[in-house]
Every structure is written in C-alpha cells, then in structure tokens.
Write a structure and sequence with these properties.
single chain; alpha/beta; Rossmann fold; 2 domains; seven-stranded parallel beta sheet; six-stranded parallel beta sheet; about 20% strand; globular
Length: about 325
C-alpha cells in the first residue's frame, strides 16, 4: 500500500509520526510545510512541501490565493504519487490533499488532533467530518462525528519504564514549539524568577517568535527536532506551551512537565483550546498546569515532588484500527 500522510508541521505532523508502527510496513510520503521538524523528517522520508494557511485568516486577511495554491500543489503530488489512502490530522496544509483524495476516490482518514477534547477543530468540523473515516483521541468528541471511531491518544507510552525522579530541579528546558506568535509573558516571568537570585537551577529556552529576549538565562529561537529532544532528555523539568506536540514530546521521554497555555487575550493564540488540553492532562495526573503566570515560581517548586501518572494512559489502538480501514 502507498500512504500519504499530511498535516501542518509541528504538533499535527508529530502525531502522524506516532503511526510509524503502522506506516513502516507501507510505502509512505508526507505533505506538509517547512519547519525544523519537517526538514529533519525529510532526511528519513519522502516529504513534499506545500503552501500553508490558517483557516481563520483566509477571510480575515483576504488570503484567498493561499488555499488555491495549496490545492494545485497538493493535487499535482497526489496525481504523481498515486497513494491508496490519505491520512491527516488536519489544518490548512492538509486541505489540498484531502480534496484531491476526494476527487480521485482515494481512501481518506481523518484523525482529530489530541489537542481537541470538547469540540472539534475548524478543520475537523467542516472538512474532516466528511472523510471516509474519522478517528477521535478523546471519547468526548465522538458525538460530533458520524460513525466516529475512538482510538485513544495516538502517542505510544512505554509504561513499563520506571523513571527515577530526584527531588531537586537542576536543569529546566523551556520550549514554545514552532507556532508563529510570541509568548513573551512566559519568558518575562522566568526572567523575573531568575533575577531574584533564589533559583537553584539553570534554564535553557527555545523562544521561537517571541520578541522579548531573556536576560538571565540561555536561549535560542529554533533548532532541529533532534536538538530539542536532546535538551528535553538532559532536563529535570520541561516548561512548555499548552500544545500537544511540546507536552507529548516531553512525556514520551518520561519528563515532569509544567504546561502554560497560550491565551488569545495576550495575542498568543487564536482560541483557548490549549487551556482545555492542559486541564484534561492535569486531571489525569500527567502534568502540572499554570493558568496564572504569577504562579509559575511556586509550581516549579511543587514539580520537585511531582511524579507523572503514566498508569492512567490507555493503550494506543491505531495499528489495528488503520489495518481494518486501509489494510
């Protein structure tokens, strides 16, 4: 079988990568946009890069040519590669491939992002819902899609590994992913904490698009995914945005996580769905959430005594589900 995997770079494409136990048995290629993760992915797999757009900005900023360009690019790729099925976790990059699969009568599978818990994404609501099969990662979403399949979280956690957690935090890594909006609020608060001189740990931060430059700890804008993973591995604690990719990358490596949701009121994101994800994972005992940035210092102190409850995770069913749908 030839499989096309398509999604926005960052968290969306990271979720598709988790399907490797399934797609490694097939001929696969990816369609996405350029960022450090997708560029690194292209070193191991065939990857095509197409136009990216944000659904809400198409009408708000009159960016109508972007989805047209995305479709033309994607249609050419689908015609050339002739996949048997297209699997996507959604967002603007995937629109052209989804339409092409519809036009050419290819199997079309939509997996709603793990970041969506109570309501579907814009892509899921208007486009993914019309796919041949819809798989949701949270049971609360099943009523929103006709004939939906519950798959659980797509991430495969090895719950047999016994992680050792010290009660002293020495190294903190901060990551805000690849999203193209600032997160100054987080870095300013960390600077305030470090300037007090009371912190007994060091911080290295990936600041992304933020225009506030930290004064009291090391930082960089972007790096390769392997370098980000190295920083995560070497840390005692990860502080990250409330995005699925950042959180799961850290949990998959057995790390304690403090997640700070991006908020639209500070122009850090377009909606508050990161609050939903952080809240749900916190209820499961997997992470610590910070909803008021002034509580970050006390949460860092509490993290020294926190142990993630990996036993609360269900097993991933995606190998079996995709075999039943595609073959």
């Amino acid at each position: 079988m030839k499989i096309c995997l398509t999604a926005n770079s960052g968290g969306h494409i990271n979720e598709l990568i988790q399907l490797k136990n399934y797609y490694n048995n097939h001929d696969v290629f990816f369609i996405t946009d350029r960022n450090p993760l997708s560029m690194e992915l292209s070193e191991k797999h065939k990857v095509y890069f197409v136009e990216k757009f944000i659904f809400k900005e198409v009408f708000k900023k009159f960016q109508f040519l972007k989805p047209v360009k995305n479709f033309i690019q994607s249609f050419y790729i689908i015609i050339k590669e002739k996949p048997d099925a297209v699997i996507t976790t959604g967002a603007g990059v995937a629109l052209g491939s989804w339409l092409s699969a519809k036009i050419l009568f290819k199997k079309n599978i939509f997996i709603e992002s793990a970041a969506r818990i109570k309501t579907p994404s814009t892509y899921g609501k208007y486009i993914g819902a019309r796919s041949e099969a819809v798989i949701v990662q949270w049971d609360q979403l099943r009523p929103f899609f006709k004939n939906s399949i519950y798959g659980g979280l797509v991430f495969n956690f090895d719950k047999s590994i016994k992680h050792k957690y010290t009660k002293q935090i020495k190294k903190i890594f901060v990551t805000t992913g690849t999203y193209k909006l600032q997160f100054n609020r987080l870095f300013m608060e960390l600077d305030r904490i470090m300037a007090s001189g009371k912190a007994e740990y060091s911080i290295t931060a990936q600041v992304g698009e933020s225009d506030y430059m930290p004064q009291n700890y090391k930082y960089f804008r972007y790096s390769s995914q392997s370098e980000v993973h190295m920083h995560i591995e070497e840390s005692d604690l990860v502080i990250c945005q409330g995005g699925c990719g950042s959180i799961m990358d850290s949990l998959l490596r057995g790390k304690r996580v403090i997640a700070v949701p991006r908020l639209p009121e500070f122009k850090e994101y377009f909606d508050d769905h990161q609050v939903e994800l952080v809240s749900e994972l916190e209820k499961m005992g997997l992470i610590l959430g910070v909803y008021d940035i002034k509580k970050l210092d006390e949460t860092i102190k509490a993290a020294a005594f926190f142990v993630p409850a990996f036993q609360n995770l269900s097993n991933s069913n995606y190998d079996r589900i995709l075999k039943e749908i595609i073959g």
